[in-house]
Amino acid sequence: MRSFLFVLAVALSHHTFGQSDDEKLVRATAEQFFLAIETKDRALLKSIMVPGSLNISTQELQNDQAKITTLNYASMIDLLTGAGNEKKERAWDETILVQGHIAVYWAPYDFHVDQKFTHCGIDSFQLIKKEGRWLISNASWTRETLNCPTSPLGPID
Hints:
Blueprint: H1 2-39, H2 42-48, E1 49-60, E2 66-72, H3 73-81, E3 87-91, E4 95-99, E5 102-113, E6 116-130, E7 133-143
Parallel strand pairs: 1-7
Antiparallel strand pairs: 1-2, 3-5, 4-5, 5-6, 6-7
Helix pairs in contact: 1-2
């Protein structure tokens, strides 16, 4: 019986360590996404997104309505890395779910343009594992301007 429990404990701990490593890699991909926005690095953003991805944002309107915007892969790259204003997105308290070769990254975020807060929301990234790397297969996010929580990350740098 003792041998069985030892083998079971080792097997379960191996699964936990493997998932923990994948969670770290999923988080790293999300962090690269935010870095690509801040640095306007098209090559970095392209390297972590699946070509052909579908990306959707919702923006609050009056009377509990929402404006839904759909962006294809090329439009997403252009929007997030195009010339113009300085952008910074920060996320915290991530929830990461991993099963096999798919994962979900879910986190509250705040967004700043030219070092001024513009909105908050929730990021939801769906990822796939391809050749040992986690790639964003699609991104969805809310754009909220009311009742935004104060970021635990403090003021932006």
